[in-house]
């Protein structure tokens, strides 16, 4: 955990480093325990060292869905290292905006900002989304991003 | 136009250069003619110097849709320079795969390869798509990519 | 049936007449038999006096789905008279194009042409679809319309 | 109606009985009045003997949509007897969760619980939905189910 | 601008006039400035002479998306004159309802009422949507329309 | 493998047995190897003892997607035992039909038939799909099922 804080600093100061350089998980995790641990580490990496509230809320009533999110989505998929985290986050934000899934899009847009993506880059994804998915999904995504940007600014001030 | 051929070579040899470095269009195009010209240049940049057959086929019966594709989608949106072309193509491929639009996804995956994206990176987008959009869309995208890769390999041999 | 042929002529020569003026079904059909009959009449009205092949093909293996299509979709819904047939067909084409359902969109675009909608009006729907649903769905719809227009022209020549 | 109350008890005490065993509607309803009556009976069967508030709210401003929901969706479709009510509800919950229609999914999940489906079985549908439709839709469905479970528990206590 | 107010009156009193008869924009707008001006005029035409709040809210943080909405969606697409405004609005409402985009659907339903579409015609679109898109999307659209109708009635009273 | 053939017989003769009674995998598989083995066993159980061609085709070019399909989708999700295989297959068919994913829907409809679901039950799912997802998706699903039924009949004859 100490080393995690240390590594976080380099992200905050150095911008978009590649996850695989930060995380010692390039060895294939093969047990569910190791996959979940990799997912948990990934989420802390993406979420400024903190757990993800939605995920924690699922653990009691939907333990399998929580495990699948952690071990499969965040561990197996997000833990891969061919794409850097910035590109994967931008592509995930694009996919979720295109599908109209603004709630999780916003979560991943926050992760993107945490790993060095700029607000301007996220806005570009929203502009681009008008082409594959039309204006209603792009406008909904722009409103979700505006709220996210606003909350982050007010939480920095406090 | 001569300079275009020259610039293409650097793309083919040098890999994933950022579009805004290649294209002198950072000045806002403000007439429909200039926007269409920018879109046409962009498509040649993405498509190895050639016109896009689907777009040309629309010009006679659907002239407004062809113009909108060229001037708005490719000129206004793809001509922006905050994101580099590689990232925009990967995000567009992700959005189209998520929506099940495998036909245009394949076109943009081809553009992505032309501007230096690797096959491995495109595969990563497909893996990632299982998370926001599920397995049927990811599997359909993988089949479209397999066909694209195969065609490009056989056309190189000839 | 004789009166049907007579009425068809007025459609072919007189353009977009309102269905409720043509069809004596403004009295609410209340039995399944009457609703199906109204649907069958509607389909002949929309389809140049002929049965709809897809519907007929469903009758043996999917009799309930065939009945629901005939009695509910075509009888109850298409048989209503607040909107004229042209407007309903254009709105149905828009909805199906937006959803990517190009197969049934093409069927309804053919109906639209049969009740006096012009090719130019159908193209406008496709242009408009770029706004709510993006370019891939609009382009797919344009390709389906091109095929439809081409087939109808060659069948007229013969 | 008296017999309805009697039959309800067997559902509440006996768990997941098959609707067709409960409802004397296997004879095809052929008038709109009979179809609507069958739908109204079905909704009381699914909704603990009470009317469905959303449906009642539509009756004044959208009378045809209310009638279609009652006579077609609940009467014709839900009144069929090849599938038992439990399986149909689980399949309907799966379809609505996959489409992101969490509002009506929650209504049908409530019906499912009323005819003897367990909370664990509904959770399994949500887990399964990650495969055809991805994690955002599954997570949204899990949140809607959590709210439903919580409300039903607090209303039992009162 | 003076002439705009004058023309608005004829819309409010005279019902569903065709946009192309009102707007002197049939000459192709070819600069972004002229396209944006045409879009701004169109929005005032559709919105009782007032700006559109969502659009204005986007201008600061998402200037390109605001420009694309104004110049492309409202200027280029809505400014076309093959379809009259009533038909285009009904088709747009159908497409947005089918996609589940009830927020923008409601905006366009308001525009439709402003250019002379009746509440009954909008309800017909919603009934029809059960066929291409199913009951959950139609019911959600009916609820959005009910709210819109109710707000407009209470604002007229005041 | 011998015991697998033995167990298959009981399925073919005895109808819809619950998977957990057939498969000795109720113990949680915790390594990727064990999860993949469970998925492979599940696919043979669902597919009459044979491998799934689409899955095998993915192994070379998309090894991670093949592994995720086998270990996550078929091992972790399909290997759960709260729902019996028949109910899970019917719900999966409903979800895929609702999403318009007729290709994989057909694969899972074939699995459903292999574990004792009847053709009539699959048709009921398709009828039901008109309610949550509309007629185009239901009709497309009916056509895919017709093809599947026809192929299976002709392969039995040979």
UniProtKB/TrEMBL annotation, chains A, B, C, D, E, F:
Keywords: Signal
SUPFAM superfamilies xrefs: AhpD-like
Domain of life: Bacteria
Position of the signal peptide: 1-29
Coiled-coil ranges per UniProt: none
Residue span, Carboxymuconolactone decarboxylase-like domain: 65-146
InterPro entries the UniProt entry points to: 4CMD/NDH-1_regulator (IPR052512), AhpD-like (IPR029032), CMD-like (IPR003779)
GO molecular function, a single term: peroxiredoxin activity
TM region(s), chain numbering: none
Protein's UniProt name: 4-carboxymuconolactone decarboxylase
Organism, as annotated: Alkalilimnicola ehrlichii
């Amino acid at each position: 955990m100490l080393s995690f804080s240390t590594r976080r600093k380099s992200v905050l100061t150095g911008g978009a480093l590649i996850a695989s350089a930060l995380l010692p998980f390039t060895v294939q995790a093969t047990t569910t325990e190791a996959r979940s641990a990799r997912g948990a580490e990934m989420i802390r990496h993406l979420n400024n060292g903190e757990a993800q509230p939605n995920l924690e809320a699922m653990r009691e009533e939907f333990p399998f869905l929580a495990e699948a999110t952690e071990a499969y989505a965040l561990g197996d998929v997000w833990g891969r290292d061919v794409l850097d985290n910035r590109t994967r986050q931008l592509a995930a934000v694009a996919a979720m905006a295109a599908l109209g899934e603004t709630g999780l899009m916003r979560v991943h847009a926050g992760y993107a900002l945490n790993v060095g993506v700029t607000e301007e880059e996220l806005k570009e994804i929203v502009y681009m989304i008008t082409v594959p998915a039309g204006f209603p999904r792009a406008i909904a995504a722009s409103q979700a991003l505006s709220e996210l940007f606003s909350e982050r600014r007010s939480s920095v001030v406090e």
